[in-house]
Design goal:
alpha/beta, Neutral endopeptidase, domain 2, 3 domains, 44% helix, globular
C-alpha cells in the first residue's frame, strides 16, 4: 500500500473515530489486550417514528444462514456467531419516517437461550435490555448510549431501546458494527479479565476479574510520573501527537486541540494512579469485591451490561487492584469529562498504532521515545520486523530457539544445578537462626512444592494455532486480528481451573521468573547462555551466573510478596507472628541500604526495589553456599556474577528505569549484594580502607 493510500485510509479511520462512537469503540476494543472500559451515559432520548418492515424473534445463531434472507452477509453472520455462540438473536429492519426514510437495522441479542421457530413477531418486542443499532445517517441526530422510544405500529407494542451502535445498511465489514454488541471506549478503567486473578489459585476456578487503570500516554513504559512532571517531555509528546494526527489527515488546529485536551486528562489521572512503589506491593492489589458491590460504584455507566457483553460468563468477584482509582472512577467516567476522555483515547491510539503503519509514521512517533530513554536512533526495519513477529508468535519462536540452541546436555546440567540449589536452600532454612520450627516446616513444604520449567515448552499452546497472518491484509489489520485471538484466549479461561502448565515467558527470552500464584520457576533457554551459563566455563563461574539467578528466583518465593503465598499459590499467612515481625525488620534493612543511593542523575527508592533486592542478596548467598560444597573458586563466581549484570546506560534511560522499574540499576545489584557476603571480603582481601567495605554489623542476611 502506498503512503498516499495509507494517508487516505487513516484519514477515514480517524474521521470515523470522531464522527461515530460505534466505530471508534470498535477500533479501540480491538486494541485493548489487558483492559477494557466503556461509558454509557444515562440520558433521556426523543421518541422516533418507525415503520416495522420485518422483525424476527429467537433466531438460533447456530442454524442461521445467509440464505435465510435476514439481510446479513457472510462477514456479518460470522461476527455475530463469534460473539454469541450460544445465544439467540432478534433482528429485523425498521424504517425511520423522520429522516429521509433512513433504514434502521435492528440487532438485539436475546438473554434467553431457548430456541424457537423463526417467525415474524406479531406481539411486542423484548421488554428488557433491548439494544438497537441505527443508521449511520442518523449519527448527528442521536448519541450512543441514548435511549429511544419506538412508536407502536401494526399492533406491535415496541419498547424503549438503547442505541449501541451506528452502521451503514450494507456495511458489515468489521466488529465496529452491531455485529459486535459490546459497547466500549477502550482502556480507561481497565477491566482486565483473568490476569492470574484468583489469589486462591490452586483450589478454585478462575471466577474473578481484576480492575485497574492501564498504561497512560507513554506507550513504552510506566515511567509516567516523571513524564507528567517534565514540561519538556510533555511538549515533545504534544508535538509528536499533532504531527501524527496531521499525517492521518486531521487539521492542525483540531490536532492541537485533541493533543492538549488529552494530555490535560492524563494529568488528572496521574494524581490518583498508583506509583511504581505501590505496584510493587503484590498483596495490596488483592481487594475483592462482590460483583454487585463493584457494579454499584458506577454512577454513569452500565457496567453490568458491559461485562455481560464482554465476558463468556459473569465473574463471582472483582479484584480491585487500584482502590484509590476505583473510588474516583465517577470523576472520569462522566458526561462532563467525555470530551477530554475521548481526546485522550485518540492521542493514545494514534501514538500506539504508528509503529504498525509506514516507515514515515514510525519515524514521526520516535521523538518521544528518544526523549524519554535517550535512544540515539530508530531501530532498523529488520529489528522492528523481528520484534513484531516475536511479539505475536513469542512461544513458537521460543520453542524453535530452545530446540536449536540449548541442547539436552546443557538442559540436564542446568536442572542438576537447580536441584542442588534447592537442597542448599533447604539446608539454609533448617539452619536459620531467627525462624521458629513451625515456620521452617512450612517454608520447606513450599520449597519442595516448587515446579520447574526449564528451556522451553514441549509444544505451543492451541492459541498459536489460531494466529494467522493474512498476506492480503495490512500489518495493522493483522496485528489487530492477532490481538483479538489473544483476548479470546484470556477470556475463555474465566470460570475454568487455572492451567498451571502455561509458560509465562517464551524460550528465547533472556530472563527468569517465579510465579507466586503457581509456585513455579521458569528458566527460558534464552538466559542459559554466557555469561550466565556456559558448559565451557568452570562450575564456580556458572554458579556466579545462572546459579545466582536460580537462587534469586527461589528467593522470590520468600521475599516480601512471595512470603505471603503458600505452596499451592494461595495468599495465606503461614508464619508465626514473631517470625513475620523479624522478617519485616530484615526486609526494612534491605530497603534502607538502597534508599537514597545516588546512581547517575537520580536517587533510588528502597521500598520500590526491595523485593528484587531481597532476591539478589539471598540468591547470591545461596549460590556461594552451593559453590562451597564443590570447592569452587570464589573469584570465578564473583567475577561472573559481575559480568552477568554489565550494562551501559544513558542518563535519560537511568531516569526512566529508576522511576518505573522494581529492579535496582544493575551495577548496584552487583556491588551491594557482594558487600553483604563474607566470602567476598575473603576472596579479595577487602579492608575497611576499601570502597567496598561494609561494617559487619550492617551486613544483611535473610535466607
Amino acid at each position: 500500500m502506498s503512503d498516499m493510500s495509507k494517508k487516505v485510509l487513516w484519514k477515514d479511520a480517524v474521521n470515523s473515530l470522531t464522527n461515530s462512537w460505534g466505530r471508534f469503540i470498535g477500533i479501540m476494543l480491538l486494541m485493548a489486550v489487558s483492559a477494557f472500559a466503556f461509558i454509557g451515559l444515562k440520558m433521556a432520548g426523543p421518541d422516533m417514528r418507525y415503520t416495522v418492515q420485518r422483525y424476527y424473534r429467537n433466531i438460533n445463531l447456530a442454524d442461521l444462514t445467509v440464505s435465510s434472507n435476514y439481510g446479513l452477509d457472510n462477514r456479518d453472520l460470522q461476527t455475530l456467531r463469534n460473539h454469541a455462540k450460544n445465544a439467540t438473536l432478534d433482528l429485523g429492519y425498521l424504517q425511520d419516517t423522520t429522516v429521509n426514510n433512513s433504514k434502521i437495522s435492528l440487532r438485539v441479542l436475546s438473554e434467553t437461550k431457548s430456541v424457537s421457530t423463526n417467525k415474524i413477531v406479531s406481539g411486542k418486542l423484548p421488554n428488557k435490555n433491548s439494544q438497537i443499532a441505527i443508521s449511520y445517517l442518523l449519527k448527528d441526530k442521536y448519541r450512543l448510549g441514548e435511549w429511544i422510544k419506538l412508536d407502536n405500529h401494526n399492533n406491535l407494542k415496541i419498547n424503549r431501546f438503547k442505541i449501541v451502535g451506528f452502521i451503514r445498511p450494507s456495511e458489515y465489514t468489521d466488529k465496529s458494527n452491531i455485529g459486535q454488541t459490546t459497547v466500549g471506549t477502550g482502556q480507561l478503567s481497565g477491566i482486565a479479565a483473568v490476569k492470574k486473578s484468583a489469589f486462591s489459585s490452586s483450589n478454585y476456578s478462575i471466577a474473578r476479574i481484576r480492575f485497574y487503570q492501564t498504561k497512560n500516554l507513554d506507550p513504552y513504559s510506566s515511567a509516567y510520573q516523571r513524564i507528567i512532571d517534565d514540561k519538556k517531555l510533555l511538549s515533545v509528546l504534544e508535538k509528536q501527537t499533532v504531527k501524527l494526527l496531521t499525517m492521518a489527515g486531521i487539521s492542525e488546529e483540531q490536532a492541537r486541540t485533541w493533543a492538549k485536551s488529552g494530555i490535560e486528562f492524563d494529568k488528572k489521572l496521574s494524581k490518583i494512579l498508583k506509583s511504581t512503589e505501590e505496584w510493587a506491593d503484590e498483596v495490596a492489589m488483592y481487594n475483592p469485591a462482590s460483583l454487585s458491590d463493584f457494579e454499584a460504584k458506577f454512577d454513569q455507566f452500565d457496567i453490568n451490561s458491559f461485562l455481560k457483553q464482554l465476558l463468556p460468563e459473569m465473574p463471582e468477584k472483582v479484584i480491585v487492584a487500584e482502590p484509590r482509582y476505583f473510588n474516583h472512577i465517577n470523576d472520569f467516567l462522566s458526561e462532563s469529562e467525555f470530551e477530554e476522555f475521548k481526546n485522550w483515547m485518540i492521542i493514545k491510539f494514534i501514538n500506539k498504532s504508528a509503529t504498525y503503519l509506514s516507515q514515515d509514521f514510525r519515524e514521526a512517533a520516535f521523538p518521544f521515545r528518544q526523549a524519554v530513554y535517550g535512544v540515539p536512533e530508530l531501530p532498523s526495519q529488520d529489528k522492528h520486523a523481528y520484534r513484531l513477529a516475536n511479539e505475536a508468535f513469542d512461544e513458537v519462536i521460543g520453542i524453535y530457539y530452545g530446540k536449536t540452541y540449548l541442547g539436552d546436555k546443557a538442559k540436564a546440567d542446568v536442572i542438576s544445578m537447580i536441584k542442588k540449589m534447592l537442597k542448599v536452600y533447604e539446608q539454609r532454612i533448617q539452619e536459620n537462626t531467627w525462624l521458629s520450627e513451625p515456620t521452617k516446616k512450612q517454608a520447606i513444604i513450599k520449597l519442595k512444592a516448587l515446579k520447574l520449567k526449564v528451556g522451553y515448552p514441549e509444544k505451543n499452546r492451541a492459541l498459536f494455532d489460531n494466529l494467522v497472518v493474512d498476506p492480503n491484509k495490512t500489518l495493522y489489520e493483522n496485528h489487530v486480528l492477532i490481538n483479538q485471538e489473544r483476548i479470546k484466549d484470556i477470556l475463555q479461561r474465566l470460570n475454568k481451573k487455572p492451567d498451571k502448565s502455561i509458560w509465562e515467558m517464551p524460550g528465547n527470552l533472556n530472563n527468569a521468573f517465579y510465579d507466586p500464584y503457581k509456585n513455579d520457576l521458569t528458566f527460558p533457554a534464552g538466559i542459559l547462555q554466557a555469561p550466565f551459563y556456559d558448559a565451557k566455563q568452570s562450575r564456580a563461574a556458572n554458579y556466579g551466573g545462572i546459579g545466582a539467578t536460580i537462587g534469586h528466583e527461589v528467593s522470590h518465593a520468600f521475599d516480601n510478596n512471595g512470603a505471603q503465598f503458600d505452596e499451592k499459590g494461595n495468599m495465606k499467612n503461614w508464619w508465626t507472628k514473631e517470625d513475620f515481625a523479624e522478617f519485616n525488620k530484615r526486609t526494612k534493612a534491605v530497603a534502607d541500604i538502597f534508599d537514597g543511593l545516588q546512581y547517575g542523575p537520580v536517587k533510588l527508592n528502597g521500598k520500590q526495589v526491595v523485593s528484587e533486592n531481597i532476591a539478589d542478596l539471598s540468591g547470591l548467598s545461596c549460590a556461594i553456599a552451593a559453590n562451597k560444597t564443590e570447592g569452587g573458586e570464589m573469584k570465578d563466581l564473583f567475577e561472573t556474577y559481575a559480568k552477568s549484570w554489565m550494562q551501559k546506560q544513558r542518563p535519560e534511560s537511568i531516569k526512566a528505569e529508576v522511576q518505573s522499574d522494581v529492579h535496582a540499576p544493575q551495577p548496584t545489584r552487583v556491588n551491594i549484594p557482594a558487600q553483604n557476603q563474607e566470602e567476598f571480603y575473603e576472596a579479595y582481601n577487602v579492608t575497611p580502607e576499601d570502597g567496598m567495605w561494609l561494617d559487619p554489623e550492617n551486613r544483611i542476611t535473610i535466607w
